[in-house]
Amino acid sequence: MATVTQMKCACESCLCIVTISDAIQKGGQYFCGQACADGHPSGSGCGHTGCGCHS
């Protein structure tokens, strides 16, 4: 059985793939950065190249 080490950021509009060991974990979900984990309170995206997420 393979162990999952990467998954898509839990932010719905985010395209980032996160390594679970490096991800920010909040509420049992994994996020690529603090902006996604906090629900984009300032409206800014995660800042990663090629990703235009914001909620």
Structure commentary:
- Strands 1-2 form a two-stranded antiparallel ribbon. Strands 3-4 form a two-stranded antiparallel sheet.
- The protein has 55 residues and is mainly beta.
- A hairpin with a 2-residue loop joins strand 3 and strand 4.
- It has one domain: Ribosomal Protein L24e, Chain: T, CATH 2.30.170.10.
- It is globular.
- It contains 1 helix and 4 strands, in the order ββββα.
- The mean pLDDT is 93.
- The longest helix is centred in the middle third of the chain and has 4 residues.
Short descriptors:
single chain; 55 residues; mainly beta; Ribosomal Protein L24e, Chain: T; two-stranded antiparallel sheet; two-stranded antiparallel ribbon; globular
Secondary structure layout plus pairing:
Elements: E1 6-8, E2 17-19, E3 24-26, E4 29-31, H1 34-37
Antiparallel strand pairs: 1-2, 3-4
SSE pattern? EEEEH
Q: Quick one: how many beta strands? A: 4
Helix content: under 10%
Strands in their spatial order, largest beta sheet: 1-2
Please indicate the count of domains.
1
Determine the structural class based on helices, strands and strand pairing.
mainly beta
